[in-house]
UniProtKB/TrEMBL annotation:
Record protein name field: AP-1 complex subunit gamma
Keywords: Cytoplasmic vesicle, Golgi apparatus, Membrane, Protein transport, Transport
Protein's membrane topology: Peripheral membrane protein
SMART domains in UniProt: Alpha_adaptinC2
Any Gene Ontology biological process: intracellular protein transport
GO cellular component: AP-1 adaptor complex
Superkingdom, taxonomy of origin: Eukaryota
InterPro entries (alphabetical): Adaptor_Complx_Large_Subunit, AP1_complex_gsu, ARM-like, ARM-type_fold, Clathrin/coatomer_adapt-like_N, Clathrin_a/b/g-adaptin_app_Ig, Clathrin_app_Ig-like_sf, GAE_dom
UniProt cross-references to Pfam families, sorted A to Z: Adaptin_N, Alpha_adaptinC2
Organism: Acanthochromis polyacanthus
Domain spans labelled GAE: 679-792
Chief localisation class: membrane
Length: 794
């Protein structure tokens, strides 16, 4: 191929290459020819060669050797060479390369050129790749061009000034007077550039924002002219006059009217006019309406105008375009807290969006539906949400179940309805619920003594029909163990009377113990329930003894330990069995060691995370004159004891006053534990911002490492999703972050997210940790970083 082939022939040769190797060969030969011609002092085809090199660059091949040629061509007096030279500079140069500084003087000269098109080339190049140093040097020239008489140059200069303000914030004051004068222009291109420049200035300087609030009447007049103007072929887009300028003006009005009543009042009539006169059947009309809605909701607008904005979003929900429905729900979610009643009017449409095929629309509809639940609509909304839960995608089940639990806890019309709702969720999506669901439900059941019979009958029937939902099976086993006597009586007035025998109940528990679907924790619940039934039935105690003895050699260590302890109760401590296995007392909601029925891992480290186990007794110190009903059977003493947790359910904190002999017997039963008092883990708050609080507690420390737990909570009125924690430590420290307990934080501190971090510090350097917090709230993503320079001491 000849070195001087035209650009079109080179493109044709490259496209006709059959393999990539052949294509590289063509390009390498052409690049070699271009290099050779660049070295020639008198080369008449420089622009032709640089154009070919730019095409090679567009294909992804190296073309850096053409940078200096760009600099030479920019300095050329010929317009054809300047044009290609400036284009090459924008493509091959950036502000990080020293070669870019060489064109500063050429750009300055061209900004004063008599030809407007040469000035335009210089303005475009500066706006594309101008560095901070170039911007400082050329800012006075740009300010001069903003005051020029040529509209073509002024619109280019305005956009170039935007780039300069973004690069060097303090230069904004230089352009403010000229930007103000540009609003008097009639040319739409100049107006567009002026509005963009003023928006940038207002966003970066509060003082400039106050100064430009005086321009609100001018902007209102410009906007009114666009809304009521007739057909203009130069600016009309699908029946809307210059929608690009309208959107820019609305965004600027939103910034100027935010937190300012005077500016907001001046634009209320205009916003109402735009909202009612804009055609919503076309995409451009919807774009203008959407910006109008955002402006209305962001400024101090009248209540009637806000209702109009919400109604526009309601119309968007009926649009066939999924993108429009998505942004409508995103906007409604932001204002559901402040304009709840207005959003409630569109509840039916929002619920219908749960049936949409698009996963993103479904997720937004779910979040908004959960936010719309209130005391007045709890029954109807919960019916729709439960229907959605039964058919929703797997990735949304956890979020849906969590939202239903929070709504039921906050607005439940009755305790029975609350229990029925949670059991429905467990039956439908028991494998996708959060870990704290089991202890929360157990606490709810213990506090509703009048529904014990109804609950145990309902859970027994659920257990017979399905043992695959682990959370449901755990709660069912716990209730059967606690209230098995009520189940055997068959006298429940709330449900149809069912005659249940002792063998039937034990068969159901044995099925759970032997099922391959049962998790180790679930088997622990079933074994403890079986043991508890030994004090609630009379004819099958030997069968229970046989079941328990079988698991004394179980491969699961914890289950084996429980079985051995229960065997000891049957043999050596049979006289204590009835007292040890008596019914659990009512669990107080705010009792020490519990929050909303959740077992606190900080208080007892041996409890499995977020799993509540039956017959688990936490025994911190209490005043000596208080006597525990259970341990009172063992006599009185002043020695505080701590029992090892048994598999089953959480017990509220009980004070201990026992005799030394009885206490020794009890400790002997549990494996000879030394009596040690429980001390809470030291905790410090490392982050508290926007309602999100993160605390750090020291769990244990060794000579070479440290284990800490990060606990996050949410005190705002809206749920937080996609919550993640990331940590970084010095290079000499090894970091291991275990799996978090969840990724969502319900509103008002309904639940917490915990994550354990193990730090290995063999060199014993000063420990520091940087934590990045990321989450999504009300459709917006947030990210923040905090540094921990000191850790709590024991």
């Amino acid at each position: 191929m000849s070195p001087s082939v035209p650009l079109q022939e080179m493109i044709r040769a490259i496209r006709s290459a059959r393999t990539q190797c052949e294509e590289r060969g063509v390009i390498q030969r052409e690049c070699a020819a271009i290099r050779a011609q660049f070295r020639q002092a008198d080369n008449g085809g420089r622009s032709h060669n640089l154009a070919k090199l730019l095409y090679v660059h567009m294909l992804g091949y190296p073309a850096h050797f053409g940078q200096m040629e760009c600099v030479r061509m920019i300095a050329s007096p010929r317009y054809s060479e300047k044009r290609v030279g400036y284009l090459g500079a924008m493509m091959l140069l950036d502000e990080k390369q020293d070669a870019s500084l060489l064109i500063t003087n050429s750009i300055k000269n061209d900004l004063s050129h008599s030809n407007q098109y040469v000035q335009s080339l210089a303005l475009c190049t500066l706006a594309c790749m101008g560095s901070a140093e170039m911007c400082r040097d050329l800012a006075p020239e740009i300010d001069r061009l903003l005051r020029a008489s040529n509209s073509y140059i002024k619109k280019k200069a305005a956009l170039c000034a935007v780039h300069i303000v973004r690069k060097v914030h303090e230069l904004g004051e230089l352009f403010a007077p000229a930007a103000r004068s540009l609003l008097a222009e009639k040319n739409h291109g100049v107006l567009h550039g002026a509005v963009v420049l003023i928006t940038e200035l207002c966003e970066r300087n509060p003082e400039t924002l106050e100064r430009f609030r005086k321009t609100v009447p001018d902007l209102v007049q410009i906007m009114k002219g666009l809304v009521i103007s007739g057909y203009s072929p130069e600016h009309d887009v699908a029946g809307v006059s210059d929608p690009f300028l309208q959107v820019r003006i609305l965004r600027l009005l939103r910034i100027l009217g935010r937190n300012n009543e005077a500016a907001s009042d001046a634009m209320n009539d205009l916003l109402a006019q735009v909202a009612t006169n804009t055609d919503s059947t076309k995409t451009v009309g919807n774009a203008v309406l959407y910006e109008t809605v955002l402006t209305v909701l962001d400024i101090k607008s009248e209540s009637g105008l806000r209702v109009l904005a919400v109604n526009i979003l309601g119309r968007f929900l009926l649009n066939n375009d999924r993108n429009i429905r998505y942004i409508a729900m995103t906007s409604l979610q932001r204002i559901v807290g402040t304009d709840h009643n207005a959003v409630q009017r569109h509840r039916g449409t929002i619920v219908d969006c749960l049936k949409d095929q698009d996963a993103s629309v479904k997720r937004r509809a779910l979040e908004l539906s959960l936010a719309l639940v209130s005391a007045t609509n709890i029954r109807s909304m919960m019916k729709e949400l439960l229907l959605f839960l039964s058919s929703c995608p797997l990735e949304l089940r956890s979020q849906a179940a969590s939202g239903i639990f929070n709504a039921a806890e906050r607005y439940a019309p009755s305790q029975r309805w609350h229990i029925d709702t949670i059991l429905h969720v467990l039956t439908t999506a028991g494998g996708d619920v959060r870990d704290e669901t089991v202890p929360n439900l157990i606490q709810l059941i213990t506090n509703t003594s009048e529904l014990h019979c109804y609950t145990v009958h309902k859970l027994y029937r659920a257990l017979l029909s399905d043992i695959s939902q682990q959370s449901l099976v755990q709660v069912a086993c716990w209730c059967i163990g606690e209230y098995g006597d009520l189940l055997l009586r068959g006298e429940c007035q709330e449900t149809e009377p069912v005659q249940v025998t002792e063998d039937d109940v034990l068969d159901a528990l044995e099925t759970v113990l032997q099922s391959h679907m049962s998790a180790p924790a679930t088997r622990g619940f079933a074994l403890t329930a079986t043991m508890k039934l030994s004090t609630r039935i009379t004819d099958n105690v030997d069968r229970i003894r046989s079941i328990v003895s079988i698991y004394g050699s179980c491969i699961d260590v914890e289950l084996q330990q429980r079985a051995v302890e229960y065997n000891a109760l049957f043999k050596k401590y049979d006289h204590m069995r009835a007292a040890v296995l008596e019914r659990m007392p009512v669990i107080e909601k705010n009792s020490p060691g519990h929050t909303n029925g959740e077992s606190t891992r900080e208080a007892v480290k041996e409890v499995q995370p977020a799993k509540v186990k039956q017959a688990e007794t936490l025994l911190p110190q209490q005043p000596a004159n208080q006597v525990c009903d259970l341990l009172d059977l063992l006599g009185g003493s002043e020695e505080p004891l701590q029992s090892n947790p048994a598999v089953g359910s959480t017990v509220p904190v009980l004070p201990i006053s026992t005799s030394s002999t009885a206490g020794g017997d009890l400790l002997d039963l549990l494996g000879g534990l030394e009596p040690t008092p429980l001390t809470p883990a030291p905790t410090v708050t490392v982050y508290e911002k926007s309602g999100v609080t993160l605390t750090l507690s020291r769990e244990k420390q060794s000579d070479s490492g440290l284990t800490v737990t990060l606990t996050a909570s949410n005190s705002t009125d809206s749920d937080i999703s996609s919550f993640t924690l990331q940590a970084a430590v010095p290079k000499s420290v090894q970091l291991h972050m275990k799996a978090p307990s969840g990724d969502s934080l319900p509103a008002r501190g309904a639940a917490k997210v915990t994550q354990m971090v193990v730090l290995s510090n063999p060199n014993k350097v000063n420990l520091k940790m940087r934590i990045r917090i990321s989450y999504t709230s009300q459709g917006s993503a947030f990210q923040d970083t905090v540094q921990v320079d000191s850790f709590p001491e024991h």
